[in-house]
Amino acid sequence: MSEKDNRTALSLSAGIASVAVASVLVGLKLWAVLATGALSVAASLADSAVDLVMSLAAATAILYAARPADEDHAFGHSSAEDLTALAQALLVTGLAGFIGWSALDRLINGGVEHLGSEGTGTLVMIVSILLTLVLVWWQGRVARLTGNRVVAADRLHYLGDLMPAVGAVIALQASQHLGITGLDSWVALLAAGIMLIGGFRIGKAAWDALMDRRADPAIIRGITELARTWPGLRGFHDLKTRTSGSRIFVNLHIELDGDQSLRAAHEIGASLRREILRRWPDCDVIIHKDVAAEGDNPGT
Description:
- This protein is mostly helical.
- It folds into 2 domains: about 5-210, Up-down Bundle (Alpha-lytic protease prodomain-like), CATH 1.20.1510; about 215-290, Alpha-Beta Plaits (2-Layer Sandwich), CATH 3.30.70.
- It has 8 helices and 3 strands, in the order αααααααββαβ.
- The chain has helices spanning about 5-35, 40-65, 80-110, 120-145, 150-180, 180-210, 215-230, 260-280, and strands spanning about 235-245, 245-255, 285-290.
- Strand 2 (about 245-255), helix 8 (about 260-280) and strand 3 (about 285-290) form a beta-alpha-beta unit.
C-alpha cells in the first residue's frame, strides 16, 4: 500500500469511528433528555446530532477527496474536504445560536422547577464522555499522521462536547443533591459559547483553504532554506504555495547553469522535488527550470 493510500485508509477509519460513536451518543443522549428534561443534556444531544450528520458527510468527503485527478479536476478533489468543513462550521454556529437563545430564555423567564431521573442522565453522560475520549484520541492520531482537515474539524467537534458533557453531569448532580436547577441553563449557555468558538475556527480554516491561502509559514521557510542550499542551483524565485484540503500545492522556479546538459538540469530539479516530498508528503510539487543570468551566485 502506498503512503497516500495508507493516509486515506487512516482518514476513513477515523470517519467510520466518528459515525459509529456519534450514532451511539445520539441514542443515549436522546434517552437521557426524555428522562431528565435537562437543557444541558439537550445541548449535548444537539451537538452530537450535528456530529452524526457531519461525520457522515466527512466520511463521504474523505472518499471523494481521495479520488485521483481527472480531466475535469486536474488538481484532484481535495477541496471537498474544505467544503465539508465549512458546512460543519455553519451548522455548528446555527445550532449554538439556538441552544444559547434557549438557555437565555430559561434564565430570564425562569427555569424548570426540577429535573428528573438525574442518576440515569448522569450515567449516560459519563458513558458518552468515555466514548468521546477514545474517539478524540484516535482522531488526533489520524490527523497528525495524515494532516486531514476534515478529521481535524471532526475532532474539534468532539473536543467541544467534552466540557459541556462534564458540565451536564455537574448540573444533574446539583439538581439531584442540592435542588439547584438554574445551573443547567448556565452549562447550556457555556456549551453554546464553546460551539461558536469551534465553529469560527473550523470555518476560518476552511475559508482560507478555499481562497487559496498560502501554506504554513514554517513549511515555506523550510522549502526556502532547502532551495537556497541545494547543490547545482544558482538561485530560485517565485515560490508560491496554496492549500486545498490536506494537500499543499507548491510551485517553484529554480535557476540553473544554462551550459549543462538537459539530463543534468533535470536531475537537479527532480532530486529537489523528491526531497520536498520526503519532508512534506502532503505536497504536490511543480518545479520550473530557468537559465540563471550570468554572474548569479547560488543562494540568491
